[in-house]
Design goal:
0% strand, single chain, globular, mainly alpha, 459 residues
Length: 459
């Protein structure tokens, strides 16, 4: 049976995927608003903010690792209705996120020029990027806290709160962007600094709202400050055992993204601007795939945690077909909206020409991304075989992606070919994914029996 007849699967998938996708879309819209408004300031501003935002990508990767550990463990405990263990897992995740966010914020605020200088030698790009990064770095600590709080709610199937918080952040960020970047309402035009200030304010409000909801409003977990003071050595070991491969995988991808920027940063500001524009379109299309993938991950964790392995096999076949279809549709949409999307930017002819070439590349690679990345996360990693995904990513990044791009660059290949080399793994991993998924040896129950009463209270 290729498609499950279990209607509850589709209902749960839609109920979770829609708010998560909408939240991702709004999060994208916040970054896109920055990108589009800054795009009116020229290639140096676009490139500077793009390079500066590599630290946002870095912190997102680290925090995604913490979130992944929370979601994988908590979703399985949710299958057992063990909210006491979930609270302990969330508490561990909050501590990790706080220290990661604090470290990255301090580094970016104290050494912005040195960080930007790692990726490009263009003086105009360095000046704009450092001015942006020194201010926006403050937001990383607040971002880390809010994302972990939202992840804790997703793990118990409360997905809408993240959507509402993101809507608020979008309204605040876009409004302040317009006022501060261009100098409206009698305020001076601050350019990239204005965009950074708007992002900091929206992130602070986002963090405060998510903390208030989890601590004072939520009735599923009943998480409180007292939970932050509790230590469960066994669950901490589990978090490290299963969470470190997740975080390790994210670190590998952070290195991959930083190397992408380093390699493409060796070209002109026009090339970097094109990479930024292409990345925004890719992220826009990626939004709905990521929402579906996150929803599948929650369903997978819950189903495996409840010990329903035969049902999970049925779901896995359905999920593969869904993501293959999503990939084909995504590739077509990328090509369809290519020229219209590029025209939104006030970029140079050079940047626009490179953008068309790069978007042609991702129209193909995104098909593989939707299948292998979504299935490996939503099924294999969430099903408990965490180390496989980490090993797979590590091999492809360090033995295929980066070496092939550097070889193409050294041989003087066209820029689009270097860009394609940086994306080639998205197709190659599909061959690994289809074998791994259909062996069904990735379903592993990671939970332990709790010693405390953790009755589930439905609200």
């Amino acid at each position: 049976m290729l498609l499950t007849k279990d209607k509850s699967f589709y209902k749960t998938l839609i109920a979770l995927a829609i708010p998560i996708s909408l939240q991702n879309l709004i999060t994208f819209a916040v970054g896109f608003a920055d990108n589009l408004m800054i795009g009116r300031l020229g290639d140096n501003a676009i490139s500077g903010v793009y390079v500066g935002n590599q630290m946002q990508t870095l912190i997102q990767m680290f925090i995604a690792g913490v979130e992944g550990a929370i979601l994988i463990l908590s979703a399985q405990y949710w299958g057992k209705k063990d909210t006491g263990s979930i609270r302990k897992v969330v508490s561990i995740g909050i501590r990790f996120a706080f220290f990661i966010g604090l470290a990255v914020s301090l580094a970016t605020v104290l050494f912005p020029s040195a960080i930007i200088n790692l990726f490009t030698k263009e003086s105009g790009v360095i000046a704009e990027g450092a001015a942006y990064l020194q201010i926006v770095g403050v937001a990383y600590l607040f971002f880390s806290i809010s994302q972990v709080m939202i992840a804790s709610m997703r793990s118990v199937e409360t997905a809408k709160i993240g959507l509402y918080i993101s809507i608020m952040a979008l309204v605040v960020n876009v409004s302040l962007n317009y006022i501060l970047i261009f100098g409206k309402l009698g305020l001076p035009a601050l350019g990239v600094k204005g965009a950074a200030i708007a992002t900091v304010i929206s992130r602070v409000l986002e963090a405060l709202t998510s903390v208030i909801y989890v601590l004072a409003i939520d009735r599923k977990l009943r998480f409180g400050f007292r939970d932050l003071l509790r230590t469960d050595s066994q669950l901490l070991r589990d978090f490290l055992r299963y969470g470190l491969p997740v975080m390790g995988g994210q670190i590998v991808w952070a290195i991959n993204n930083l190397m992408n920027t380093k390699i493409m940063g060796s070209y002109t500001a026009g090339v970097l601007a094109a990479v930024s524009i292409t990345g925004m379109l890719h992220n826009l299309i990626y939004v709905w795939m990521n929402g579906l993938s996150s929803a599948v991950g929650i369903i997978t964790g819950k189903t495996v945690g409840a010990g329903q392995y035969e049902k999970m096999k049925e779901y896995a076949k359905t999920v593969q077909l869904i993501f293959l279809g999503v990939g084909l549709l995504s590739g077509a949409l990328v090509l369809l909206f290519r020229d219209g999307f590029i025209s939104l930017y006030n970029a140079t002819p050079e940047a626009m020409a490179y953008s068309r070439q790069f978007i042609n590349v991702i129209s193909v690679t995104i098909i593989g991304t939707c299948y292998q990345a979504a299935c490996l996360f939503g099924l294999v990693k969430s099903g408990g075989d965490i180390s496989f995904v980490f090993k797979n990513d590590t091999i492809f990044v360090f033995l295929v992606v980066i070496p092939s791009a550097l070889i193409c660059q050294r041989l003087g290949a066209p820029v689009w070919m270097v860009f394609a080399a940086l994306k080639c793994d998205q197709i190659l991993k599909c061959f690994v994914a289809v074998v791994k998924i259909n062996r069904f040896n990735w379903m592993k129950n990671l939970t332990r029996d709790s010693q405390e009463e953790t009755a589930y209270e439905k609200v």
